[in-house]
Design brief:
Elements lengths: L1 H6 L5 E4 L6 H7 L4 E4 L11 E3 L14 H8 L7
Parallel strand pairs: 1-2, 2-3
Length: about 80
């Protein structure tokens, strides 16, 4: 799909979610309109990148009480 877009000069975007970009994304990243990356240090691979990160559900960003978590999972302090 990226090759067709490149050949027919259609604009395309790439999303690189890994900490190290794959071969295809490195090949086509230079001619992509924008490359969205999750890690700041991926900017060195793409001149036209933007750090977006991974979307997270709001519930995962809440503070969790450690005692409630231990009770929920059934952990015992005496056990390793």
């Amino acid at each position: 799909m990226l090759l067709n877009a490149h050949v027919f000069r259609k604009p395309y975007f790439i999303c690189e979610q890994n900490s190290y970009p794959g071969i295809v994304n490195r090949l086509f990243g230079s001619s992509a309109k924008k490359v969205f990356v999750n890690f700041k240090y991926n900017n060195r691979f793409f001149r036209n990148s933007m750090v977006t990160g991974n979307p997270m559900p709001e519930k995962l960003t809440e503070k969790i009480n450690i005692r409630d978590a231990w009770k929920f999972f059934g952990f015992a302090k005496k056990k390793k």
